[in-house]
Amino acid sequence: MSGCCHGDATIVPASSPSPTSRRVEDPSLAAGSTDEARFAVWLQRTREAERAALARELHDELGAILTAARLDVAWMAAQPVSHDPAIADRLAALQRVLTQGIEFKRRVVEELHPTVLTHLGLVPALEQLIASHRMRFAGRVSVTLDPSIRLTGEPALAVYRIVQESLTNIQKYARADLVRITLRRQRGRIELSVDDDGAGFDTRAIGAGHHGLAGMRHRMLAIGGRLDVTSAVGAGTSIRASLPVAAGARSGAQAHREPRRPAVGSQVEGFRPQPRPPFRNDTPRLQP
């Protein structure tokens, strides 16, 4: 799509004769003043820092509680009293519930802050994300990801979140039979596209309540990219995100220069996470 500045987000009706013949901008995504743009970027970064801090709390505190409870149940299951069939059944049921709780905690933590991005990189993280959505999607998913793309830091997180939000919207609203996801290099830029053949929507009718699209725009704005959304009722939806290759290079260079900081939120101006007390398991352990 042409005529779109970096950091801009344009909504283009798919029913128009051509992308340039008629352009409709969502008021919630229209590029505002410099101050508004700076605030949107700050807000997006602060939100991610808070999500990372919450994910860390859940992983450390709730994870320790659930693990301690499961160990206590395992200890109880090894005692002579567990030979009673009724008690054995209850203990087995409790073990299953705790296992489900631990798995649920893990999913929530990854939704809040995808650690797989740090450990494995963008492309493997996207593959895992798409695989998890594919399990809940009745249609067909076509995926083309360039493995040579090695974005890190904020650009990687922006691309990941856009794919995540797009797939969530498709599952909730699109009723699509086919989804195509492509990540590639093209003319010195990294191009992401998420297309579906679902219900689509009227771009002229969307308003300020579309926070998902606004969040996508803010993410691209923060890294000097652009976002294009094309849709029409009954004609599916196309999400296009584009960012310069240099954005990923700058992010990677910065990551090598700066040491890892223990407090994720402290990297964002205006956000100061509160210190937490160490976890103590005060649950009394049963004695034999």
List keywords for this structure.
288 residues; alpha/beta; Heat Shock Protein 90; 2 domains; six-stranded mixed beta sheet; 7 helices; 48% helix; elongated; disordered C terminus
Written account of the structure:
The protein has two domains: 9-31 and 119-259, Histidine kinase-like ATPase, C-terminal domain (Heat Shock Protein 90, 2-Layer Sandwich); 56-112. It is 48% helix and 15% strand. The chain has helices at residues 34-77, 85-112, 115-120, 122-134, 153-174, 211-222, 245-257, and strands at 9-13, 140-145, 178-186, 189-196, 226-231, 237-244.
Topology, element by element:
Elements lengths: L8 E5 L20 H44 L7 H28 L2 H6 L1 H13 L5 E6 L7 H22 L3 E9 L2 E8 L14 H12 L3 E6 L5 E8 H13 L31
Parallel strand pairs: 1-5, 2-3
Antiparallel strand pairs: 3-4, 4-6, 5-6
Helix pairs in contact: 1-2, 1-6, 4-5, 5-6, 5-7
Short description:
It is built from seven helices and six strands, in the order βααααβαββαββα.
How many H/I helical runs? 7
CATH first level of the largest domain: Alpha Beta
Run of helices and strands: EHHHHEHEEHEEH
Mean pLDDT: 76
Number of strands: 6
How many independent structural domains? 2
Low-pLDDT segments, ≥5 res: 1-32, 250-288
Q: In what range is the share of β-strand residues?
A: 5-15%
Distance between the termini: 71 Å
Helix share, percent: 40-55%
Major sheet: arrangement of strands? 1-5-6-4-3-2
CATH topology of the largest domain: Heat Shock Protein 90
Sheet with the most strands, sense and barrel status: 6 strands, mixed
Give the second-level CATH assignment, the architecture of the largest domain.
Answer: 2-Layer Sandwich
Shape: elongated
Q: What is the CATH homology-level superfamily of the largest domain?
A: Histidine kinase-like ATPase, C-terminal domain
CA radius of gyration: 23 Å
Structural class: alpha/beta
